[in-house]
C-alpha cells in the first residue's frame, strides 16, 4: 500500500533539495556582482565589467530557477500538508507575506534594471540596482530562515482551538535558533559561490583563457573561501551548542549517541541501528564528543534513549552530518592549498585547477547535507513540540502523490543537468566573443 505521508515527505524533500540549490547561489552571487560593479566604477578597469557581464548571466539563470522551484514548493503546503497551514497559518502566512512584500518585490523591481539597464541608466543607478537585488535576495533568505527556525525552536505564540496565534512577533522572529541558523546559512551561501567562481574560472583557465577578469575572479574566490571556511567552522560549533540546548534529540542523532553520560566519545563511523538502539561497527575517539559539545572533557550529553517517542530517523541524520563536515574539511584544505599557491606564484598549478573544477558544485553537497540534518533531525515534528508530521499530512490517495512525485523528480533531474550544462557552456564560450556584448545586445532587443 502506498503511504501518502511517506510519499509526500519524499516529494517535499526532493522539492526543497532542488530549490535550495539556487537561492544558495543567488544570495551570495548578487553580492559578488555588486563588488565587481563597484570595482569597475572605482578603477574603470574593463576586467571588472567583463567579470560582471559574464557572471550576471549565470545569476539570471539561477534566480529564475529559484523562483520557479519556490512556487511549486509553496503549492505543496496546500496539496500535501493541509494540516500545516491550518495549524500554524496565522504565523507562517504573515512571515511568508513579509518575504514577498519586502524582498521579492524589491528583487523583481530592480532585476530588470540590473540585467538590461547597463546602457539605459547611469552607472550609479545600475550599481544601486545591483545592490538592491543582492539585498533583496538576502532579505528573502532572512524571512525564510526566520520561519524555518521558528519551526525548530518555536516561541512567542499560544495555541487556541488547535491553532497557533502570535503573542509576541519579536520573539517569533528572533527565536533561539534563528541567529545561528541565519549566520550559518549565509556563510554557507558565500562559500558555495566561492567554489562556483573558482571552479568555473579554473575551467576557463585550463582551456587556455588569458582573461584578466577570469584571473581576478579566481583569486578573489579562493581568498574569500580560505577566510570563510574557518569562520564557518566556528559558526557551526556555536550552532551545535544551540542545538544541544534546544533540540538535544537531534544533536544525539547527529552524533550517534544512544546512552546519556559524561565523557562521551566522538563517533567517527558507525552504522546506527534504530531497532536495537545501538551502533554497529563503531569507530570512535574517547571523550571527544563531550569536549566539542560541552567544551569539557567530562561534559554530560543526553542520549537518544532519553527521548523514547521523539527519536528522528537516526541513520540519515548521522550520515548527512558526516557528509557535511567531511565536505567542509575538504573545502577548507583545498581553499588553503590554492591560496598558498597564489601567494607563492600569483597563480594555481594545473593539478589544483583540475581539483577546483571537480569541486565547482561542492558547496551544494555540503548545504544539502546540512539541511537534511536540520529537517530530518526535527522529526517526528514539523513544528517542534507543536505539530507532528503525521498530523499535518494529506489524506489524498497515495497513487496521486506518487504520480506527482515521479513528475517532479523527472523535471528536477532534467533541470539540474541542464543548469550545470548551461553554466559550463557559458564558461566554454566566454572567451570566444566579447562577454560585455551579451547583456547589452539583449537590452537593445528588449527596448525594440
From TrEMBL:
Please provide one cellular component term from the Gene Ontology annotations of this protein. Answer: plasma membrane
TM ranges: 12-34, 54-75, 95-116, 128-151, 182-204, 216-235, 314-334, 355-374, 409-427
InterPro entries under this entry?
A: Cyt-d_ubiquinol_oxidase_su_1
Molecular function GO labels? electron transfer activity; heme binding; metal ion binding; oxidoreductase activity, acting on diphenols and related substances as donors, oxygen as acceptor
UniProt cross-references to Pfam families, sorted A to Z: Cyt_bd_oxida_I
Signal sequence extent: none
Report the principal subcellular site: membrane
Lipid metabolism as UniProt keyword: no
Compartment(s): Cell inner membrane; Cell membrane
Report what the protein is called.
Cytochrome d ubiquinol oxidase subunit I
Amino acid at each position: 500500500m502506498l503511504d501518502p505521508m511517506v510519499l509526500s515527505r519524499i516529494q517535499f524533500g526532493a522539492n526543497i533539495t532542488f530549490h535550495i540549490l539556487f537561492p544558495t547561489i543567488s544570495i551570495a552571487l548578487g553580492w559578488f556582482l555588486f563588488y565587481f560593479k563597484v570595482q569597475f566604477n572605482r578603477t574603470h578597469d574593463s576586467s571588472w565589467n567583463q567579470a560582471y557581464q559574464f557572471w550576471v548571466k549565470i545569476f539570471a539563470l539561477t534566480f529564475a530557477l529559484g523562483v520557479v522551484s519556490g512556487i511549486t514548493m509553496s503549492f505543496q503546503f496546500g496539496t500535501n500538508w493541509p494540516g500545516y497551514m491550518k495549524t500554524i497559518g496565522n504565523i507562517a502566512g504573515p512571515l511568508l507575506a513579509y518575504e514577498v512584500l519586502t524582498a521579492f518585490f524589491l528583487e523583481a523591481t530592480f532585476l530588470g534594471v540590473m540585467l538590461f539597464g547597463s546602457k539605459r541608466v547611469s552607472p550609479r543607478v545600475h550599481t544601486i540596482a545591483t545592490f538592491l537585488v543582492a539585498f533583496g535576495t538576502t532579505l528573502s533568505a532572512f524571512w525564510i530562515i526566520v520561519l524555518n527556525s521558528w519551526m525548530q525552536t518555536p516561541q512567542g505564540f499560544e495555541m487556541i482551538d488547535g491553532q497557533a496565534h502570535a503573542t509576541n512577533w519579536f520573539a517569533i522572529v528572533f527565536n533561539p535558533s534563528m541567529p545561528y541558523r541565519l549566520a550559518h546559512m549565509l556563510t554557507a551561501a558565500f562559500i558555495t559561490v566561492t567554489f562556483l567562481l573558482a571552479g568555473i574560472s579554473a575551467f576557463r583557465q585550463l582551456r587556455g583563457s588569458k582573461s584578466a577578469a577570469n584571473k581576478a575572479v579566481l583569486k578573489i574566490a579562493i581568498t574569500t573561501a580560505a577566510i570563510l571556511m574557518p569562520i564557518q567552522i566556528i559558526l557551526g560549533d556555536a550552532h551545535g551548542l544551540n542545538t544541544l540546548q534546544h533540540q538535544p534529540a537531534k544533536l544525539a542523532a547527529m552524533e550517534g549517541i544512544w546512552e546519556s553520560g559524561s565523557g562521551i566519545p566522538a563517533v567517527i563511523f558507525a552504522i546506527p541501528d534504530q531497532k536495537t538502539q545501538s551502533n554497529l561497527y563503531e569507530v570512535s575517539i574517547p571523550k571527544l564528543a563531550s569536549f566539542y559539545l560541552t567544551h569539557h572533557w567530562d561534559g554530560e550529553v543526553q542520549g537518544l534513549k532519553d527521548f523514547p517517542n521523539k527519536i528522528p530517523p537516526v541513520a540519515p541524520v548521522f550520515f548527512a552530518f558526516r557528509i557535511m563536515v567531511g565536505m567542509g574539511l575538504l573545502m577548507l584544505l583545498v581553499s588553503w592549498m590554492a591560496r598558498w599557491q597564489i601567494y607563492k606564484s600569483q597563480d594555481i598549478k594545473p593539478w589544483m585547477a583540475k581539483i577546483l573544477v571537480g569541486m565547482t558544485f561542492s558547496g551544494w553537497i555540503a548545504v544539502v547535507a546540512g539541511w537534511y540534518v536540520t529537517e530530518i533531525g526535527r522529526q517526528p515534528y514539523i513544528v517542534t513540540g507543536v505539530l507532528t508530521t503525521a498530523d499535518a499530512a494529506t489524506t489524498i490517495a497515495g497513487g496521486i502523490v506518487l504520480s506527482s512525485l515521479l513528475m517532479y523528480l523527472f523535471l528536477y533531474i532534467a533541470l539540474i543537468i541542464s543548469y550545470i550544462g548551461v553554466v559550463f557552456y557559458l564558461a566554454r564560450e566566454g572567451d570566444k566573443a566579447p562577454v560585455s556584448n551579451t547583456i547589452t545586445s539583449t537590452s537593445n532587443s528588449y527596448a525594440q
